[in-house]
Prior knowledge:
Layout: E1 4-6, E2 19-21, E3 33-35, H1 52-61, H2 64-71, E4 77-79, H3 84-94, H4 96-99, H5 103-115, H6 121-136, H7 141-157, H8 167-181, E5 184-188, E6 193-199, H9 212-215, E7 223-230, E8 233-240, H10 259-270, E9 278-281, E10 290-294, H11 316-330
Parallel strand pairs: 1-4, 2-3, 2-4, 6-7
Antiparallel strand pairs: 5-6, 7-8, 8-10, 9-10
Helix pairs in contact: 1-3, 1-5, 3-5, 3-7, 5-6, 6-7, 10-11
Amino acid sequence: xxxxxxxxxxxxxxxxxxVMVDGSFGAAPAGGLHLAHWPGNRTPRxxxxxxxxEIAFAFLDLDEPRRAELLGGCEALVLNHYDTDGVCALxxxxxxxxxxxxxxxxxxxxxxxxxxxxxxxxxxxxxxALQDLGRRWTGDRDGLLEAALDLLATMLADEEAEPxxxxxxxxxxxxxRAALGAALHDDLVYMDLGxxxxxxxxxxxxxxxxxxxxxxxxxxxxxxxxxxxxxxxxSARLVLGTRSFFDVVSRPASARPDLAAxxxxxxxxxxxxxDGQRWRHQPQAGATPELWFGSEHLPLYAEHAGKAxxxxxxxxxxxxxxVLDAVREAWVLxxxxxxxxxxxxxxxx
Length: 349
């Protein structure tokens, strides 16, 4: 087994080839092998999959001479960040005897971590447990990776293990699903968008704030718009998923709407306010940016928007219309002049 290393950037890799697991340093000086779906990866074409965990298993499926050829003297398994898909991929490569019997479950766990897609509640529990470990860890990063592999192996053997790390998150997921089920749902598959519009009854009702794993959990949409209308106005959150960021091979990536332009437009419509509340957005190029109305601070990848959400004065249908217009403007249309070639019947579909 190759040693495991956490490195913060290409300058830290050194001058020896390594296996870049679930990350990318582009043309790193050490060369080596990429087994990753991150933008800029150099994963061999025949190994490319949607998730780095799937790529790791595809590598293990190769015959031994081909694996040795690809490794080419690599001296370590390297990660440059901590997340669930990376840990699952690392387990497959570093402890294949533990990972192999749980291949399907590891794919589910990785999808939960990187796509917010919940294929099973036990997979969600493992993702939450790994995230909890990362938040609470105070030691060095190499130690965190080893601890994460141990935790993952434990939960693969016993899906009820470590309940303090995941039980409350699973209970909240069930509540979030119920909240979505009670809202009006527009299933705009052709726009790769789900829209949920909730009516919030009673004075002082909190904003409509289901979590990412609930509204992206089906894997049906890569983006979601959440609107909740109450006595104080409308809460709003537009989330762009990660399938338009990672190097996904199973389906074309949807072009992202211009969040900065949409934010400017919505603020123009909102008008001046004296409470510090306004339309805001995260960096467009991030893995999963979002736009929301409210206060300034909303952490990247936030499951729930929480106190960052405020109340817009705009009509929810107006908000929805502007979002749909922005999505349409981002569409990349096929190069097709709708004219038939000789002998072609364009209506024979």
